[in-house]
Design brief:
By secondary structure, the protein is mainly α. The chain is built from 10 helices and 2 strands. It has one domain: Fic-like fold, CATH 1.10.3290. It has a two-stranded antiparallel ribbon with strand order 1-2.
Length: about 250
Amino acid sequence: MRDDQVNQCIDYIRFTMEMEGSELADGTSDVLESILTGDADADSVVADYIVRQGLETSYETGHDEMGTYEDSRALVNYFNIHDKARLRTIEHFLVNVRTAQLFACPVSGNPTFQYLCQIHSRLFGDIYPSAGRIRTSEASKRKDFCRVQFIERCSSELFARLSKDDYLRKIDDIGDFANDLAFYMGEAEALHPFRDGNGRAIRFYFNRLVQEAGYLLHWSKADPDRMLEASIAAIDGDYQALVDVLGEILEPCG
């Protein structure tokens, strides 16, 4: 991977952390860079981190794997962590490592809904038994998301439409591309298919789709607050703010 590509990947991960209201911990960017350049193996980095953090590796079954622990707001996880703040710190590191791994070793195939589920599983599979699985409870965060009973049908319709549009691969006009991209990103956010981690999985999915279509998103130029508000508006079908944000950071590859 070229130096400029490594920097773009790090910029993407840094922006993702800003969207999560956090930032890269000291030394993390060096670890991620070593994975992106092939100097370190992601599986070994994860295994070493688990040992250094003294994390439990004997998973306590019997919990609702789509829910939280009874005495906590922490999602049920493989490390039996009930402290949400500690879980969040560990989650961020492991997901960032897996994000770098996905950049370095992309999954092949068309970006279908199954591919989105696979991304979620790869990003969160070290931590949550619910990774890659469709949620079974209603969800809302400033907006109400797709009802559980409609997720399967709506995801099928949305991704069939995206396939019919050839995953946006034949759009030469950058303005038209930003418009279509904003629509699909907004609809995917409204679908909100997973229990948690939707934003990170969906963002990675569309970042890959954009590259496959011959464009590039400069995440270092993006404002996380504007992106958040634009994404929320798009969930309600008002795509213009997201079109504007994406238009400012999009450019054709090459």
